[in-house]
Amino acid sequence: MSTPVRSDFLQIEGVTAVFDGFKALDVSYFGVDWGDLRVVIGPNGAGKTTLCDVISGKTKPTTGKVVIDEKDVTRWRDTEISALGVGRKFQTPSVFDSLTVYENMELALPGRRRAWQNLFGRETAEQRDRILALLERTHLIGRKDHLARDLSHGQRQWLEISMLMVSGARLLLVDEPAAGLTDTETALTADLLLELKGNHTLIVIEHDMEFVRRLGSRVTCLCQGRVLADGTLDQVSSDPQVIEAYLGRGKAGR
Amino acid sequence: MAEYPIDPRQFALTRAIAGLGWRGTLLGFDRRAPAIGAAFLLLAIPVFYAVGLLDLAQVNQLGRYCAIALVAIGLDLVWGYTGMLSLCQAMFFTLGGYAMGMHLAMQGPKDGKGVPTSISYVSSEVDGLALPWFWQPFAHEWFTLVAVLAVPAIVAGLFGWLAFRSRIKGVYFSIITQALTVALMTLFSLNLLKLGGTNGLTNFTHLLGCDIRTGEAKLALYWVSALALIGAALFAWWLTTTRFGRILVAVRDSEARLRFAGYQPVIFKTAVFTLAAVLAGIGGALYVPQTGIVTPSDMAAVPSIMVVVWVALGGRGTITGAVVGALLVNLIYALLTTHMPKFWPFILGAVFVSVVLFMPDGIVGQWRKLIAWAQRGKARA
Ligand SMILES: Nc1ncnc2c1ncn2[C@@H]1O[C@H](COP(=O)(O)OP(=O)(O)O)[C@@H](O)[C@H]1O
Ligand SMILES: [Mg+2]
Fold first, then answer.
1. Which of A56, B123, B137, B380 has the fewest CB atoms within 10 Å, i.e. is most exposed?
2. Nearest CA to ligand 1 atom 3
3. Per-residue pLDDT tens for B304-332?
4. Is the CB of residue B331 less than 8 Å from the CB of residue B347?
5. Does any domain span residue B93?
6. Where in the sequence is the domain holding B84, given as residue range(s)?
């Protein structure tokens, strides 16, 4: 988990993703530096989730290439990309419902991905402490032995973020982490993500402008699969093309 | 206080103690239930037989049910834990059964050319009267043992790997497993395969030098089956307590999440499917000498569906549920078919529908709820 020498940790070049002739993604260049937090905004259907799909290997790009940490991962399998250190939080919270909070965290620990490695042995005391400290941080410690299905929506979001944090992933793709959260929950989520910045590279997709402002990071706006604008939130939100795009979809002022 | 003959506080205390005692008994039984069940199968049944409470046919019947229950344990791992509804477990059972059946046939009566009688009249007349080459190694015990384990394992491993790699899941998986078992049944029914055609294999007499028709051999086979059942249940239970077991549950809950956490679901699914096939194969190998025959119709669609019924009734996702379901349904079946054969399908149907409606977690699931309730009560008391 060494810090890469090159500043650009992730590069996406000339990537298109075409579904039945429909270009869901058409990005000539998108790059993120190591340790940065990049926010991706854009109206519904802009291709934000598809961007995550392409990076994590869920969707293979139709053309173009994806480079992570100097490795061309365009044709890699999803599990191989995950092994490289790419973690993902899905748009709809996705945790293992029938396992406890602690067991969810345990499965997220790095290493032991082969079948036979899982037959014997438990997590080390150090790993256990790390899980407990993280659960403390995300206010889940009191529910550590509860089934994930019994958690509230916000707690599930945090559990999923906690799983990313414990996994040792270097590049985190976080898809709409504030969706459906209360204001206080949103604030905690933003703090958690900011805490990860520096030691991790993050791509955070979000609609909620209040949340984006709180993150105070560089923003990229996607629309109809293309990068419309890139810069600080103020720069991006005053960009006439961006305003047009949101207005065109009746989403201004969000 | 003087006007009351009994101190009401004392009365409340007695009630509390009685309540605690009742709950304590329940919890105590729950803790010991697997051990009680094992002791019952291994010791009580032979004793009942010795004192004449059970006859040989009944012990033999129980032995067969123990063997069948291995299939249910396997399906529970595949379906209850991993969420894949396989409809071909009886096929693996029958493959193990055929391997054992071939060995038994080789030990049994043969015609003048050394061909076991159970295949001589369907095969040797069409095919030069010689013993087919692939029959030869089944004369050896060790080869047979390996075949019992390896044949189901190879079929399940190959088929599972191909199916899971192509991301076949849900109803599609169920349907193609059912198609597979029916296809293999048709194949085994062909005389040219030299496995006895639709008549299957029968006329078994000896196993490991003992005459399997004697009382001692039947008792021994019962005992081995009970032991195998207990061993398999313990193994399956241990597996579910490992991280491997939790990954199986994770496959059921969210395969996509698991994949992006870096695990390859295909490997885990293939592994558990293969394990279940091996358990079923062992069950079949123990069943066949106790029942004396194995035929292609053992891998028709219905027997595999029955395994699903046992696991659903007993409670999927719990190993005890699979065992209880398999033993109970078969015992009820045995009782009903002797006393009121016409009503058996209706009663089973009614029981199944009511369990699905009123006890979706099966008998053991319902029992667990009762135990959880008792524990809460105890914590309060
Ligand atoms: N697997 C797919 N098959 C077909 N169309 C898809 C697929 N994934 C995404 N799309 C389409 O691509 C467009 C972008 O979707 P998405 O990336 O989910 O947008 P966003 O996350 O920005 O709201 C949508 O029109 C969607 O219907
Ligand atoms: Mg989206």
1. B380
2. A19
3. 999 999 999 999 999 999 999 999 989 88
4. no
5. yes
6. 35-380
Ligand 2 geometric centre to CA of A184 (Å): 23
Helix (H) or strand (E) holding B207: strand B206-207
Tens digits of residue pLDDT in A148-193: 999 998 899 899 999 988 988 899 999 999 888 888 889 889 998 9
Distance CA B313, CA B353 (A): 10
Tell me, what's the pLDDT at B272? 97
- Look up residue B87 and give its DSSP letter: S
Q: Which of B262, B267, B268 sits opposite A82 (nearest CB)?
A: B262
Using CB atoms, which residue from B260, B267, B271 is nearest to A82?
B260
Cα separation of B93 and B110, whole Å?
26
- The reply to whether B348 falls in a domain is yes
Question: Residue B354 corresponds to which tokens in the numbers above?
Answer: 């009511």
Q: Could you tell me the distance, in angstroms and rounded to a whole number, from the CA of residue B344 to the centre of ligand 2?
A: 54
What is the C-alpha separation between B162 and B174, in angstroms, rounded?
14
A23 SS3 class: strand
Round to the nearest angstrom and report the end-to-end CA distance of chain A: 38
- Tokens describing residue B209: 């030098």
* ipTM exceeds 0.90: no
The full set of domains in chain A, from first to last, is 1-85+171-254 (3.40.50.300), 95-169 (no CATH)
* CA separation for the pair B208, B223 (Å, rounded): 16
* Residue A11, beta-bridge partner list: A31, A67
CB contact under 8 A, A114 and B267: yes
Q: Is residue B160 part of a domain?
A: yes
In angstroms, the separation between the Cα of residue A251 and the nearest Cα of chain B is 31
CB A48 less than 6 A from any atom of ligand 1? yes
Q: How many domains in chain B? A: 1
Instruction: Please check whether residue B1 lies inside any domain of the structure.
Output: no
Residue B166 phi/psi, 5-degree rounding, is: -80, 10
DSSP result, B151-194: HHHHHHHHHHHHHHHTT--HHHHHHHHHHHHHHHHHHHH-GGGT
d(CA A57, CA A250) in angstroms, rounded, equals: 32
